[in-house]
Design brief:
Length: 310
């Protein structure tokens, strides 16, 4: 049986701070229609796809940001049309959003909905970048550490739509551990959404490196873990802050097989043969045969760097 699945990365252009959920959802439904016309079965939307990237704003009282969060179970009334349209089209999707739990916890979350409309998985962002207090040296803030708690669900994977699927969110893509944990569970497609400003506000760095690093980490990780990576940006100038685009689909060889060319709403697609992932997992990256875990303990036993004594 063929294991080819047509996958789409549904990049969104900027979402203004005052843009409604309904408007964002309508834009995603437009992209879903394009996906249907192009025979796509699985669509990846960005991180925090329902709102502007609000961690760029400081609020002393974090509950003043609650209007950017979704409360209660998905679908919410505003997102229900997206779920219904996807189900009608038989398209599964990844959706990123800010989650406020019933007991008051805030997470940067994504869910995976299968092609029958069932929510098969939830992931909460583990690697939260940025800072937790106002930083006057930055042109804009990156307050994910203020508004979110680190994810508490680990890096699960799910059997869905004929493959083994995993999720992560934005900054997670820069960490090898993210992919390795999922690839130890056999992941074949890693889905992720991102919001990446084109300026590194924590250190001086040429702007072009933002896109280079974006693709470098995902291409290397796809290869080293023999999996597909489907990565979707929110892109363009959002309230004066430029977010890089560069949404892409990477195959297990590390090669990019689709790449966005705009910083607007744009669907890119690729036919992903999941058996390509299997091939690497059975040869060069056959973990059972070649990994040497007796030398890897430090990775989970130690967080920061401990240099040798002088
Ligand atoms: N959303 C997100 O995680 N963005 C980060 C920006 C890092 S700069 C503080 C990223 O890794 O792309």
């Amino acid at each position: 049986m063929s294991r080819i699945i047509n996958v789409g990365a549904a990049q969104l252009g900027p979402i203004a701070p005052d843009e409604s959920r309904v408007s964002a959802v309508n834009r995603m439904i437009d992209l879903l229609k394009q996906a249907k016309d192009r025979g796509v079965k699985l669509v990846v939307f960005p991180e925090l796809a329902l709102t502007t990237f609000f961690p760029r704003y400081y609020e002393q009282d974090i509950s003043k940001m609650d209007h950017h969060f979704e409360r209660g179970d998905m679908p919410t009334p505003e997102t229900r049309p997206l779920f219904e349209k996807a189900k009608e089209y038989g398209i599964g999707f990844y959706l990123g959003y800010a989650e406020l739990t019933e007991d008051g916890h805030r997470f940067n979350t994504s869910i995976l909905v299968d092609d029958t409309g069932k929510i098969v998985g939830k992931y909460r962002k583990v690697h939260l970048p940025g800072h937790s207090e106002y930083d006057g040296n930055r042109p804009w803030q990156h307050l994910e550490k203020r508004y979110f708690e680190p994810g508490d669900l680990g890096f699960p994977v799910w059997r869905a739509m004929g493959g083994i699927m995993g999720m992560c969110i934005c900054n997670d893509r820069r960490w090898p551990e993210t992919y390795r944990v999922m690839s130890l569970k056999g992941v074949e497609i890693v889905m992720l959404g991102y919001n990446t400003p084109d300026v590194n506000t924590s250190a001086p760095e040429p702007n072009h490196l933002r896109m280079f690093h974006n693709h470098l980490v995902m291409q290397a990780s796809a290869y080293q873990n023999s999996c597909f990576v489907v990565a979707t940006a929110k892109a363009g100038i959002e309230d004066g802050c430029m977010l890089i685009g560069g949404s892409c689909i990477v195959q297990p060889s590390g090669e990019m097989i689709a790449l966005a060319t705009t910083v607007k709403d744009e669907l890119i697609t690729a036919a992903c043969d999941l058996d390509l992932a299997k091939m690497g997992k059975e040869t060069v990256f056959n973990f059972a045969k070649h990994r040497r875990i007796e030398h890897y303990g430090i990775i989970t036993g130690q967080t920061g760097v401990v240099e040798p004594a002088e």
